Amino acid sequence: MIKSVTPETMAPPFARYAHGIADTQSGLVLTSGQLALDVDGTIPDGAQAQAQLIFSNIDEILAQAGTDKSHVLKVHAYVTDRSHMADYMAARDVWLADIPHLPASTLMIVSGFTRPEFVVEIEVTARLP
């Protein structure tokens, strides 16, 4: 069974897609790329604050799908400038600090996102327990 995952505690997706998808047959959970849009419409300043909000939202998606960050297999992250890498990585390292394994990770520098205020986008692949 495939289940769309869009927690009501988050800002809704920008278009016709889900924040995440859980596939019970394969045991995988995939999130859409998450941007730092708070439920009230605000965007935090800076890469670290944006990454912290994004990881918090990813926790919500994973929980609704029936898993958590301890089952994350891969993190894909995108920043708009090399200057954002250290702040993103600091937030990522805090988010991963208490899990028993380290996931695979990709970090890319991209030219931008849907709004210029966004400087970080993150998506993860996880497994169901």
Automatic annotation (TrEMBL):
It holds the Pfam family Ribonuc_L-PSP. InterPro entries: RutC-like_sf, YjgF/YER057c/UK114. This is Enamine deaminase RidA (YjgF/YER057c/UK114 family). It comes from the Bacteria. SUPFAM superfamilies: YjgF-like. It comes from Yoonia maritima.
